[in-house]
Each structure stands twice: as structure tokens, then as C-alpha cells.
Amino acid sequence: MNVVSLEKALATINDFWSPVIIGELNNQVVKAVKLKGEFVMHHHDHEDEMFMVLKGKLQIAFAEETKVVGEGEFLIIPRGIPHKPVAEEEVHVLLFEPVSTVNTGNVVNERTIENPPRIG
Amino acid sequence: MNVVSLEKALATINDFWSPVIIGELNNQVVKAVKLKGEFVMHHHDHEDEMFMVLKGKLQIAFAEETKVVGEGEFLIIPRGIPHKPVAEEEVHVLLFEPVSTVNTGNVVNERTIENPPRIG
């Protein structure tokens, strides 16, 4: 059992859109990620996904609307719903999701990261 | 899908040791709770539990040591491990755990809350 500092975990991350696993429990993982720019529209067939914003302002675009998640706020996206994270400026995010979750969901492309590194 | 503010969720809480459910995903819940004082030593037979400190400093006493979890830090306690949260001053905590988790685990007493309210 180790106490994990979000700030220290984030400080180890150099690349945008490259999540690292910082905790695991009940077959779920806690990931930290830095975002900047626009991601790919995708969905997860079997996983609900929680985005908690630690720093900055995250936009999440859906088919017909865009939600804005500010610092100290979170949004849970149910499985099956297409979404596209957009970060106009750098955003730091904590993700809670099942171990099985792949970042690009149903889409497989050069941004897909099948096995994020674990730290902490 | 609603964006949830941690600060606003916490502002609705009047009582210490009375968690409220502020999100649910993948059969897990996100709870917010205010702690002050000393809880009961207990364990959860089937649930790992994550304590993330949003404000203040949380001590978690185990059989042979005490861990300190500061603001912006978290600790995951695996199932089966007896633990006792202690908050010398007021502490605000986010919990991430299975829906089935009862606050006092294997102990049932006047502090047990079987069905926390849901907000947000």
C-alpha cells in the first residue's frame, strides 16, 4: 500500500494523450493523463468512463452537444456513447475505468495505447 | 450525463461520516464524505477501497502502522485489511469503491450507513 500523489504522478508524464496507471482496485484502474489538442471520436462498448479534471478545462464533444468539465469537476460517460475529448489548453485528467478500457475505444489507430505503463 | 462539481457536492453535506453518492459507473460508486474525529476499525471482505483526499490530512490506522494521506493524494486499501480513518481536523474525501461497500465494513453499529443518499 503506497500513498500516491497526483502531482508527483503527473510530473512523470511527458507526452500528451499517454495515460499512466497510478492505481488499481476492484478490476478498475485509476489513470492520470495530460491532454492537449483534439482526440478522436470513439466509444467504449463495455466500459463506462469517468473523467475528473485536476487542472484546466476539458471539453468533451458528443454527437449533438459539447460538455465542459472544469477543474474539480467530473463527468461519467456511459458505455456506448461516442465522445471526443478536446483540450484547447493543457488539461490534467484523472480517469476511472475498467482495466479492460483502451483509450481509443472502438477505434484503433496511431493514438491507440493498449497497455499503459504503471507507476507508483 | 451531468458535470459534477466536487465543491458543490461537498457543500450539500452537513454531517461527518455520512457519505453521499455522487457518481456511479461499472458497478462502482464515487462518494464524497466529510470526516472529523475517529472512525471504527473495520475491513471489507470483498471490496478494495480508494480514499482520495480533497482537503485536509487523513490518517488511516492499520494494525501496525498509520499512513497519512494529504491533499491531492490517495491510498487504495485492498479488501480484507483492517483500517481506521482518523481525522484530527476536518477532512474532505472522495471514495471510489464497489456499489456493495458499506462504510463500516464487517462492523455494524450506530455509524453504519447502508444506503447513502445520491446527489448530482
Describe this structure in words.
The structure is a homodimer of 120-residue chains. Chain A has a single domain (6-98), classed as Jelly Rolls (Sandwich). The first copy, chain A, is 5% helix and 45% strand. Chain A is built from one helix and eight strands; from the N terminus they run E-H-E-E-E-E-E-E-E. The N and C termini of chain A lie close together (10 Å). In chain A, strands 2, 3, 4, 5, 6, 7 and 8 form a seven-stranded antiparallel β-sheet that branches. Chain A is globular and about 40 Å long. Chain A has one helix spanning 6-11; strands spanning 4-5, 20-25, 28-38, 49-55, 58-61, 66-69, 73-77, 84-98.
Strand and helix map with partners:
2 copies of one chain form a homodimer.
Chain A: E1 4-5, H1 6-11, E2 20-25, E3 28-38, E4 49-55, E5 58-61, E6 66-69, E7 73-77, E8 84-98
Q: What characterizes the major β-sheet of chain A?
A: 7 strands, antiparallel
Low-confidence stretches of chain A: none
Return the structural class of chain A. mainly beta
Which two chains touch over the largest interface?
Answer: A-B, 32 and 32 residues
The oligomerization state is homodimer
**CA-based shape of chain A:** globular
> Roughly what fraction of the amino acids of chain A lie in strands?
over 45%
Mean pLDDT of chain A: 96
How many distinct folded domains of chain A? Answer: 1
Order of helices and strands of chain A: EHEEEEEEE
Helix content of chain A: under 10%
Summarize the structure.
Chain A has 120 residues and is mainly beta. Chain A contains one helix and eight strands; from the N terminus they run E-H-E-E-E-E-E-E-E.
